[in-house]
Amino acid sequence: MKLALLQPQPAEGKAELAMASLSQALVAAAAAGADMLVAPELMLPGYNGPAAHRQQAQDRTGPWMRHLSDLTRKTGCALVTGWSEREGDQHFNSVTAFGPEGEILAHHRKHMLFGEMEKSVFHPGDAPAPVFSFAGLRFGLLICYEIEFPEIARHLARNGAEVILVPTANPEGYEHVQEILVPARAYESRAFVAYANYCGQENGLRFGGRSVLVGPDGSSLIQAGTTESLLVCTLPEIGTYPADRLSTQVEDLRDSLY
Q1: Is residue 110 flagged as an active site residue?
Q2: 14 catalytic residue (yes or no)
Q3: Which of 52, 164, 178, 240 is most buried per CB count within 10 Å?
Q4: Is residue 144 annotated as part of the catalytic site, yes or no?
Q5: Each residue's pLDDT tens digit, 207-246
Q6: Element (H, E) at 133
Q7: Of 77, 85, 110, 148, which one is the catalytic site residue?
Q8: 3-state helix/strand/coil string of 165-204
């Protein structure tokens, strides 16, 4: 299984630019042999623009979803990307996983919203974070801040997730997430964690880049710097890791005591 992570500049509310970036990245990822591309949080229409979210958010039958389905079908590369979703009069910070034939594999609405902007625009999702099958592996979906909570990653691991995919919009100054928390979640969960961030700035908010893929032993397999990047990495077989380098915390935790 070969996974690609996109680290772009944010689109600043210009959904057509974000869509072009996704299209180019899918073509490049497919050419590199990737089975799946992971893009950042709220890729459509960009992260730091509350007015853009209120004005441009779409439902799951809208043109954004149809176009992304077409792109994955044409390139044969699966896609996980964030977008601004509307259902009725409510808005959600959402991620959708598309398969290589354009089918929807999973959908997740962010549970734990971060900061004033998100809380002023979006409603928190209520459905459990999903786990789905693709290319012989089990994948879980989280969004940005959620990877900082051990409980939700543990939920995914207990439901069989071997790879946790995390579209994110992590600002500059929060590098401890990539350096400490993402490796900790990977190790605790005995799972790969793919963390796809932005670089550059958007409406005064600077992003920290450093998108990363971490193995189940907590070590980094590949990591970006602070400029635009497309990372491509083959996931090692988990059986290639020595047993004494992998955690059994998920099985050993005695929930009934706490």
Answers
A1: yes
A2: no
A3: 164
A4: yes
A5: 999 999 999 999 999 999 999 999 999 999 999 999 999 9
A6: strand 131-134
A7: 110
A8: EEECCCECCCCHHHHHHHHHHHHHHCCEEEEECCCCEECC
